[in-house]
């Protein structure tokens, strides 16, 4: 299973086994998703580490 490295809105970096809807383009809905951050244990907006500057 492929893992994606993401950064949450608080700046925590972690990997996730799946990044929902990652196949859709940035122009369509944006790169961010709501994921539960393992560091702060809250639902946070998270983006793939490579997509932050788009």
Rounded mean pLDDT score: 77
Total number of strands: 4
- How many distinct helices? 1
How would you write the strand order of the largest sheet?
A: 2-1-4-3
String of helices and strands: EEHEE
- Approximately how much beta-strand content do the residues carry? 35-45%
Rg of Cα set: 10 Å
Structural class: mainly beta
Protein name: Formate-dependent nitrite reductase complex subunit NrfF
Sequence-ordered SSE layout with sheet pairings:
Blueprint: E1 4-8, E2 13-16, H1 26-29, E3 33-36, E4 43-48
Antiparallel strand pairs: 1-2, 1-4, 3-4
Protein name: Formate-dependent nitrite reductase complex subunit NrfF
Organism: Streptomyces violaceusniger (strain Tu 4113)
Structure explained in plain terms:
It is a single chain. This protein has a domain at 1-17 and 32-48. It is built from one helix and four strands; from the N terminus they run ββαββ. The chain has a four-stranded antiparallel β-sheet with strand order 2-1-4-3, with no helix packed on it. It is mainly β. The longest helix has 4 residues, at 26-29. This is Formate-dependent nitrite reductase complex subunit NrfF.
Name a few traits of the molecule.
54 residues; mainly beta; four-stranded antiparallel sheet; 1 helix; 7% helix; globular
Compact overview of the structure:
This protein has 54 residues and is mainly β.
């Amino acid at each position: 299973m492929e893992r994606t490295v993401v950064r949450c809105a608080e700046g925590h970096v972690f990997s996730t086994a799946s990044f929902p809807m990652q196949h859709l383009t940035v122009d369509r809905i944006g790169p961010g998703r709501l994921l539960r951050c393992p560091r702060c244990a809250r639902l946070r907006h998270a983006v793939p580490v490579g997509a932050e500057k788009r």
